[in-house]
Automatic annotation (TrEMBL):
Pfam families: YCII (PF03795). The lineage of its organism: Bacteria, Pseudomonadati, Pseudomonadota, Alphaproteobacteria, Hyphomicrobiales. Belongs to the YciI family. It comes from Neorhizobium turbinariae. Residues 1-114 form the YCII-related domain. It comes from the Bacteria. This is YciI family protein.
Length: 129
């Protein structure tokens, strides 16, 4: 099963890190990720830019509205994600706990199973990478 691990954090904290702090955190995260990378279970990982760089398209009465930034302001925002192939949810929870232990910027990890759809192959759905 494919899982998405959504990383929520206080962006004021994460984007205030010095270059040295950033490198230290990324090094610790790489140590946690490496076993899954070697096992071929870790898929794409993404880090999102701050919400000040976001654009939201919101359904309007007549046509969609384009807004600067996120729709709602919250203390925690989605700042990144992991994709992971796992046999059980327990395996993903264990990985997320390790990420949480070494990442001082993240406050929560939301785990969701997901399917991959290929728009050019309508009806095709993958459950693994």
């Amino acid at each position: 099963m494919l899982y998405a691990i959504l990383c929520y954090a206080h962006e004021e904290t994460v984007f205030a890190w010095s270059k040295e702090e950033e490198e230290a955190v990324m090094g610790k995260l790489m140590e946690v990720q490496e076993p899954l990378m070697k096992a071929g279970k870790l898929g794409p990982v993404g880090r999102l830019m701050p919400t000040t760089a976001a654009t939201t398209v919101r359904k309007g009465k007549e046509e969609p509205l384009v807004l600067d930034g996120p729709f709602a302001e919250t203390k925690e925002v989605l700042l990144g994600f992991y994709t992971m192939e796992a046999d059980t949810l327990d395996e993903v929870v264990a990985f997320s706990k390790k990420l949480s232990e070494v990442n001082p910027g993240s406050s929560s990890y939301e785990i969701r199973p997901f399917y991959v759809f290929h728009p050019n192959e309508l009806g095709k759905r993958e459950t693994s990478t």
